[in-house]
UniProtKB/TrEMBL annotation, chains A, B:
PROSITE patterns: HTH_MARR_2. The keyword Transcription regulation applies. This is MarR family transcriptional regulator. InterPro entries: HTH_MarR-typ, MarR/SlyA-like, WH-like_DNA-bd_sf, WH_DNA-bd_sf. Residues 12-144 form the HTH marR-type domain. SUPFAM superfamilies: Winged helix' DNA-binding domain. GO terms for biological process: response to stress. GO terms for molecular function: DNA binding; DNA-binding transcription factor activity. Keywords: DNA-binding, Transcription, Transcription regulation. The keyword Membrane does not apply. It comes from Bradyrhizobium lablabi.
Length: 147, 147
DNA sequence: TGGAAAATATTGAATATTCAACAATTGAAG
DNA sequence: CTTCAATTGTTGAATATTCAATATTTTCCA
């Protein structure tokens, strides 16, 4: 029944390709919206994760926002310069640094969230509730099955 | 019924995030396999697309392999150095360059294809035929609905 | 306890990507 | 026809990412 792609089947039959293509497109759309605030998608993720108010270590944060450690360090440097977030040494484990969002970061985060939500609404409209939910469910379960 | 995420809902409820996460994971796995041949995922895509034997312009190719034009130009430069592909000026339209795969490129492409196929087989096993096919179908239709 | 190994974050050099400008060719309008 | 705009691909500078090495702190265990 379900077969893997053959050597000579088009690249568009590969799950890896379809994921890359869909991700590229959706990410590009989100990027366009967030550009209103002059902020890359990754900074939205960082602010959103930190918005729970709890301190998050750089390692935790890197996992959560899908960035490598050095990339995150440098992006956080910029955000600290912009006074969006700040670092605190973790008193329980002094190897760690805990990241927090500033008031300015919280305000920006709110504006970014509404831009992101409005994108999701747009997707729901053009793609449909049913498909969207089913796709989310399948993606979650793919991620689960990959760990 | 199906609602978009709220401002304060976790980032994991956003389609954009789930796509990025799944793409990152699957891409990383593919990258691992292809590293046996010392080749990045993008070069597999390029070789696969060119393997139809027809010449493809840089613009076409950039779209097909999900790369920006300058990035593609530079990657193709490397592949030309490695004698995997070659450029031919399009006689019909001399602004264009047609890309072709060399014999060496074809041989490499075959080896890369089996690595990629074996990854798909692995996904089918752990994730299931049904889910895989359904996910592919939904991704295709998401991409369609985004154009 | 003492010292080696692991975990965490950062840095700097090497690499890759992107943006804006450019060159060449074609298309289109007057 | 001729000129101006649009298309195609490349280049170089600016920017961003990654890899390997480092510093610091903690954990483990002999």
């Amino acid at each position: 029944m379900a077969k893997p792609p053959k050597d000579n089947s088009p690249i568009t039959e590969h799950l890896a390709y379809l994921l890359a293509q869909a991700n590229r497109e959706i990410n590009r759309q989100l990027e366009m919206r967030l550009s209103k605030e002059g902020v890359p998608v990754e900074q939205w993720r960082i602010l959103k994760v930190l918005s729970d108010g709890n301190g998050h270590s750089m390692g935790e944060l890197a996992d959560a926002v899908l960035l490598n450690h050095p990339t995150l360090t440098k992006m956080v440097d910029r955000m600290v310069s912009d006074a969006l977030v700040y670092r605190v040494q973790d008193p329980k484990d002094r190897r760690k640094v805990l990241m927090f969002v500033s008031d300015r970061g919280k305000a920006l985060s709110k504006r970014l969230n509404s831009l992101a939500v409005s994108q999701e609404e747009h997707i729901l409209e053009s793609y449909g509730d049913k498909s969207t939910n089913e796709l989310k469910r399948l993606l979650e379960s793919l991620i689960d099955s990959s760990n």
